[in-house]
Structure formats: structure tokens, C-alpha cells
Amino acid sequence: MSDTPEENTAEAVEATPAPEAALPDPEVERLEAAVAGMARGALILKLSPKRTALHREKLRRLAHEVKPIVMVGRAGLSDGLVAAIRRGLLDHELIKVKLLDAAPVSREAFALWVHEKTKADAIAWVGRTVIFYQRHPEKQKIHLPG
Prior knowledge:
Blueprint: H1 5-15, H2 26-35, H3 40-47, H4 53-63, E1 70-72, H5 79-92, E2 94-99, H6 107-118, E3 121-126, E4 129-133
Parallel strand pairs: 1-2
Antiparallel strand pairs: 2-4, 3-4
Helix pairs in contact: 2-6
């Protein structure tokens, strides 16, 4: 064994233990099991039961120019995330939420979780971006047909 810096660095890297994989969150496992095997259309209908196809089409068109206002990362599902989504829905009625690659949940399970926590309708998803709608209780900004 020599004392050259290259060899000492290599030994230090090898001696460093690999980080342990994070344990799966039971809530994420429950959500993933609930959406497993569901067709996309069936899940959208379950997550937006009061919306017709015409409503969802109009909301998708309106959401085209909306930028994601909430990003979901490694921290995953939390009370702070619910608060940010509720605030966005109250301010805008129609929001996009982007799931980053580090997010520990699928877009389908995430949409179910948000629907359970906020009662917002999951209108659609494109890639890892999910569109949610919830009518403002007093000052409705988006008027849907029918």
C-alpha cells in the first residue's frame, strides 16, 4: 500500500458504506395498491365523479397554458403539500402539480391521495403533471357548461 493521494481516495470511497434504501411508506403502498390495475379512464372517472366529459375537455384546454405551481419531490406526501395544493386551488381553481423524478409515488396514486385529502377533481395527467380542479366556494372563476 502506497501513500499516494489517488490510492488513499479510492480506499476511502470503498470504505464508505452505501446508503440504505428508504423503507416504503405504508400510505404510498396503500395508494399504489388502490390504483393497481385500474384503467386510466376508470380512474379519472373515479377521481372526478361530478365532471362530465365536456367539463374535463374544457378544463384540459384551460390548463394548457397553466404552469405547475406545486412540485412534489423526494419529501413525498406531507401535510405541507396538502396545504400548498389547497391554497393553489383556492387561489386559482385549476392547478397543475408536477411530480419530479425523485417523488416516491406514481401519478395515479398521487392523484388519488390529493382527491382523498382535498376532494378536488383530478381532471387529467400528462407525463408526470397532474391537473386538479376545485370550484371556489364563493368566487367562481371558471364557469363550466351545464
